[in-house]
Amino acid sequence: MAGTFLDMYTRVMTELRRSNAATDVKQAINDAIFEAAQERFYFNETKDTSFNTVNGQEYYPDLGIVELDSIWYFNGTTRYNLFLASNKDLDDAAEGNVLGGQLMSMSHTAGQFRLYPIPTSVTAVHVSGYGKLTPYPLVNDADTNAWLTDGETFIRALAKRNFLRDVVRDYGEARTYDVIAEDYKKLLLERTAVKSSTGKIRSTQF
Q1: In what helix (H) or strand (E) does residue 162 lie, and over which residues does it extend?
Q2: What is the residue range of 171's domain?
Q3: Whether residues 94 and 19 fall in one domain
Q4: Is residue 2 scored above 90 in pLDDT?
């Protein structure tokens, strides 16, 4: 099992019998993570991460989140949920660059969060959802996250497919790894379904 970025690309290069393609293989791994992150798995869920608003700043990095489940902030001990709006909705609402007031809505577009109204104070905005996990993209040899542990077999197969398809142009072999990757994905989705069970006891017929 890989554990770090170095472990992953060393293993991929070994299995592809390559010794001089480190840059291309690293890119193939990051491309694989980007693709895989479009799907929810038990290990790429973000239950509660946050960012601080800045006076007069409307846009913020989206923390690698692909899809949001909920958004909220606290005023004292009281929780206030934000409405997830489209960017067009905020364009319509923000005529005149509305500043200040209680946060109401947020959009998620082009890799950024957009808040309405524009904050005029520091507030910790909490979000839950799923996505790419940090660090992203992987850069340093020691970089690690759950894609390289829980999702390692899936990412490794996707990375090899990407390299064979996009660099080597061996489309037949790439299709083979596409099938292998799909099998690993199904296994992860099955594990995710088990871990995401409702916890409710169901009646059993004998």
Answers
A1: helix 152-163
A2: 5-41+132-195
A3: no
A4: no
